[in-house]
Design brief:
- With 381 residues, the protein is an alpha/beta fold.
- It has 2 domains: 2-173 and 363-380, Rossmann fold (3-Layer(aba) Sandwich), CATH 3.40.50.2000; 184-361, 3-Layer(aba) Sandwich (Rossmann fold), CATH 3.40.50.
- It contains 16 helices and 12 strands.
- It has helices spanning 16-31, 45-50, 66-78, 93-101, 115-118, 128-142, 151-159, 184-190, 211-221, 239-248, 266-272, 292-299, 312-315, 330-341, 344-361, 364-380; strands at residues 2-6, 34-40, 56-59, 84-87, 107-112, 145-148, 198-202, 229-233, 255-259, 275-278, 303-307, 322-325.
- The strands form 2 sheets. Strands 3-2-1-4-5-6 form a 6-stranded parallel β-sheet, sandwiched between helices.
- α3 packs parallel to α4 (93-101), α8 crosses α11 and α9 (211-221) crosses α14.
- The protein is globular, with a radius of gyration of 22 Å.
Length: 381
C-alpha cells in the first residue's frame, strides 16, 4: 500500500495526538510500499525529520492553518502516487476528500480522538456555529473509514451521523519498551517522597483532570493511612488553584508538586507510585478521549484508578488492571484508593495484569498492524 498521512500535530510539538502521529508514522513506514507524512513546519523540525525513515513534507504554516495549506499543496504531493490518505484528525479532511474527487487517491481514512468532534470554534456566533457543526459532520460522513480511539469516540461519530459500518474502533497504544518497571526508589529519593504509600498523578494541570477530587479523597485518607503522600506531576493553568486547595485542606506535608516530569523520567515516576490516579471528568468539549496515561502507568506495572468518563473505560479493565469510579465522587474515590493502598497483593496483581494486557494487545505495534489490516481490506473492496 502507498499511504500519505496528514497531521497538524507532530513532533517537535508534544502531546497525545503528536505521539499518536509519530508512533504510527514509524510503523506505517515499515509496512507500506511507500509512506510519506505532511505536517506543519514548527521550530526545530529539522532535527526531528533527520532521524525519521520516511519523507516529511513540512508546510510553513501554524497547525490551525493546515486545512488551507493542505488544500493548496496536497495535489502536488499526492500526484507522486498514493493509494490512500490517512488524516490524524478531521480538520485536514477537506484536502483528502478533494484528492479523492480528483482521482489522486482511492480511499480517505480519518482518526478520531474526542475533543475535536465536540469543539466548535464559532459556537457562539449565531447561525455560523450550527453551520460549522453541520459542515464537519457532513465531511465525516464522506470519509471511507473512521478510526476512533475508543468506543466513546466512536459514539460521537455515530451522533454525527456516521454509519457504524464506516467506524473501526482502534484504541491507543503504548511504547512498552519506553514504559516498563523503572527505578522508583531513586525517583522517590530525588523528590523527597519517602518510602510510604504514594499516590501519583501526571497530567496537564487543568480542572477537568479531577486532581481536586483526589485532594479531597487524600484529605479523608491521611489519618487512616499513615505516611500517605500524593505527588502531582505536570504543569498548567490550574496549579495555583490546586495549591490553594492543598493549603485549605491542610495537606502541605502530604502533597508534592513535581512540575513537568521529563520523558526520560516518566517510567521511574510511574514505578515509584503505589497507585496512579486521575479521575478525569468530561467537560465538553474537553473530554478524555481515551486516557493513554493509564496504559503508560500499567506498562510500568502500576495499578490505576480512573473515572467512568469519556474513553477511559477502554483504557482500564475494571477490577483487572485498575478501578473505575464515578466522576467527582470523592467517597467512591477514597474507598478505591484505600482498597489498593492497603492491599499490596491486589495492586500487584492489577499491575502485572496491566503489563500482560499491554504486551498482548495494546502496544503501538498492535495499533498500527490493526489499522493497516483495516485499510488494506478497504482498498481491496
Amino acid at each position: 500500500m502507498r499511504l500519505l498521512m496528514i497531521t497538524q500535530d507532530f513532533p517537535p510539538q508534544t502531546g497525545g495526538i503528536q505521539t499518536y502521529s509519530a508512533e504510527l508514522g514509524q510503523r506505517f513506514a515499515a509496512s507500506c510500499d511507500r509512506f510519506e507524512m505532511v505536517a506543519p513546519a514548527d521550530e526545530g523540525f529539522e532535527a526531528v525529520d533527520a532521524g525519521l525513515p520516511y519523507p516529511v513534507h513540512r508546510l510553513p504554516v501554524p497547525s490551525d492553518r493546515m486545512v488551507f495549506a493542505t488544500l493548496l499543496s496536497g495535489a502536488a504531493i499526492a500526484k507522486q502516487g498514493f493509494d490512500a490518505v490517512f488524516h490524524a484528525q478531521w480538520y485536514t479532511l477537506p484536502a483528502g476528500l478533494w484528492l479523492r474527487r480528483r482521482g489522486h487517491v482511492r480511499r480517505v481514512f480519518v482518526a478520531a480522538h474526542g475533543r475535536e468532534l465536540l469543539l466548535n470554534v464559532v459556537e457562539r456566533v449565531p447561525a455560523v456555529g450550527s453551520g460549522y457543526a453541520a459542515a464537519r459532520d457532513a465531511m465525516l460522513r464522506k470519509a471511507d473509514l473512521l478510526m476512533p480511539v475508543s468506543s466513546y469516540t466512536g459514539g460521537l461519530l455515530e451522533d454525527a451521523g456516521v454509519s457504524s459500518k464506516a467506524i473501526h474502533v482502534a484504541p491507543n497504544g503504548v511504547d512498552a519498551d519506553a514504559f516498563r518497571v523503572g527505578d522508583g526508589v531513586a525517583f522517590r529519593a530525588e523528590h523527597g517522597l519517602g518510602d510510604g504509600p504514594l499516590i501519583t498523578t501526571v497530567c496537564r494541570l487543568v480542572p477537568r483532570k479531577g486532581i481536586d477530587t483526589t485532594l479531597e479523597a487524600v484529605a479523608r485518607l491521611r489519618e487512616r493511612i499513615p505516611g500517605l503522600r500524593y505527588a502531582i506531576g505536570g504543569s498548567g493553568p490550574d496549579r495555583e488553584r490546586l495549591e490553594v486547595r492543598v493549603r485549605d485542606l491542610g495537606l502541605q506535608d502530604t502533597v508534592r508538586f513535581l512540575g513537568r516530569v521529563p520523558d526520560a523520567e516518566m517510567a521511574n515516576c510511574m514505578t515509584a507510585a503505589d497507585v496512579f490516579c486521575m479521575p478525569a471528568r468530561s467537560e465538553p468539549p474537553d473530554v478524555e478521549g481515551f486516557g493513554l496515561v493509564f496504559l503508560e502507568a500499567g506498562a510500568c506495572e502500576t495499578a490505576v484508578i480512573g473515572a467512568r468518563a469519556g474513553g477511559v473505560p477502554d483504557a482500564i479493565v475494571h477490577g483487572e488492571t485498575g478501578l473505575l469510579v464515578e466522576p467527582s465522587d470523592t467517597t467512591a474515590l477514597a474507598d478505591a484508593l484505600h482498597e489498593l493502598l492497603t492491599q499490596p497483593k491486589v495492586r500487584a496483581r492489577m499491575g502485572a495484569a496491566a503489563r500482560t494486557r499491554i504486551e498482548a494487545q495494546c502496544t503501538w505495534d498492535h495499533v498500527a498492524s490493526g489499522l493497516m489490516e483495516t485499510m488494506r481490506a478497504s482498498l481491496a473492496r
